[in-house]
Amino acid sequence: MFQDPVLLNTFVILATTPTAINAVLASKLYQLRTDLAVCSFILTTFLYLVVVFPLLFFLLK
């Protein structure tokens, strides 16, 4: 299963992606703490773009 480098790289990228906007929508729908979901969405997206994406770009080349 993990002998295919394309499949392995796909799993790595999917595992490191930020929180989806769906978390914000679900928290709004069920009247939960939307501010926490928005903060999580913004923080994980920022960290992904600044830290994780450049690392993955150079490591998985």
Automatic annotation (TrEMBL):
Protein name: Membrane transport protein
Organism: Selenomonas ruminantium
